Amino acid sequence: MSTNSQKYRNSFLKEVEANVEEGEWVKMCMQCGVCAGSCPLGKHWDHPPQEIFMMIRAGKREEVLSSDSMWMCTSCYNCIARCPRGLPITHIMHGLAVYSKRLGLMPDNQPTAEFGQIFWDNLMKKGRVNELKMGLSMYFKDGFSQGVKNAMANQKLGQNMMKAKRMNAMEIMGGHGVKSPGDLAKIIKKAQEIEDGNIQDFS
Amino acid sequence: MAKIELSFYPGCSSQKGATSSNYLVSAQTMCEELDITLNEIPDWNCCGASIGYGGGGELPRLTLSARNIALSEEHNAGQEIVSPCAACWLNTREAKERLNEDEKMMQDANTALAEGGLRFKGEVNVRHMVEVLVEDIGFDAIKDKVKKPLEGLKIAGYVGCQTNRPFGIAGESFENPQYLDKIVEAVGADSIPTFEKKVQCCGGALAFSEPEKSQEMIHGIIEAAYDNGADMIVTPCPLCQANVEIYQDQINETYGTKFDMPVVYYSTLMSVAFGRNATDAALNGHIIKAKKLEEIASK
Fold first, then answer.
1. What's the mean pLDDT when you consider all of chain B?
2. Taking CA atoms, what residue in B is nearest to A98?
3. What is the value of pTM for the model shown?
4. Cα Rg for chain B, rounded, in angstroms?
5. pLDDT score recorded for residue A202
6. Is B200 at the interface with chain A, CB within 8 A?
7. Interface ipTM
């Protein structure tokens, strides 16, 4: 019976429910649009959250997963605070973004996606963020000459931060970190393996 | 006032030479004055902040915070975890709640933590420093500690996002929280309850990745503070502080404004009002000098 009843349900919604963080909430959206009206980046989105949710229910897989809308989330949680049905919208947006990346469908050169990866790689090296190296990686992500331009454009800001002792050139030598980054890496690698193992194949 | 002992999670940006190192200094000063002992969680790691999702998935991210909680439960047993940072608090509290609600997730996180010989129990409360002030200390006790009232200063209370949502401070509205204005009043300054951008997002991590979009929002926040007659902005969040302070030059260039608005922490205000000097209040850690606070501190 259960396999039979599943036939009537759209498979992209099932895929989102199975593989996207908090995806099981998508079907609860009642299309009121409060999230769209509350999002500080709303005007920059191709599709606001309630539209994304309806597109998932309509089976628009490619269109949803290749959208850069989810990457506009600043994690301000306004949508969560206001949603009348209590949908964890911020988490669904993060989940959709990461899932599109996993499948290789996210838009090329999406700056926030690139920054997210730079941030994660940076924190995983020593267990704590090295702000100086993170900033430089971001400036130089599109090559050396663009990096120099970016660094020049922000030169005054950097000098101001150094003067206030809120940036330290010596961080380039190593900086802060946990005692045993290798142990932390092992923990996170295991978590990643478990998560990968939980992904269901819908291709 | 009873002595309070807390398990302290300072977070990456609070470290020496990082963007909110001045927050840590002023928070420590404030806690000394309020008889709060902060026992740092040994060997804590980054919480993943608000942008960590872009590189680490759900379980790796939750496991990062589970490790900090496990370390706290092991080394600072019985003590509540407190963080001065909005994202640190949010991620740690979220991880605690999510793992407690979801048995499978708890098992998975503990399987991962076992690789480092750790175990998450999830029995400990996770709080923001502001919660301790509001709930355990109280506005009256703060007022009683004031030696140098910040008289004549008009201060816009910028609560921002993650200290306010999704958890917020108990008893406070998400749309119009009052506690920061009450702290401003308690230290003898004038609050600005009509500051309409008090819970507006500053752009968070997008200040790095999409500066034009973020700076448009920051511009609105500072403009509203000016138009409401503020001498300075106060915030409980390290990223709000940085974003609203350090881009003012660039915003002035883009928008033709002449912003020169100091942005300080509640702990800065309290350190000065409690009679401590400018160094203890970490006023030297600001790019836009809070001159009026420096004057009061040197009196």
1. 97
2. B54
3. 0.96
4. 19
5. 86
6. yes
7. 0.96
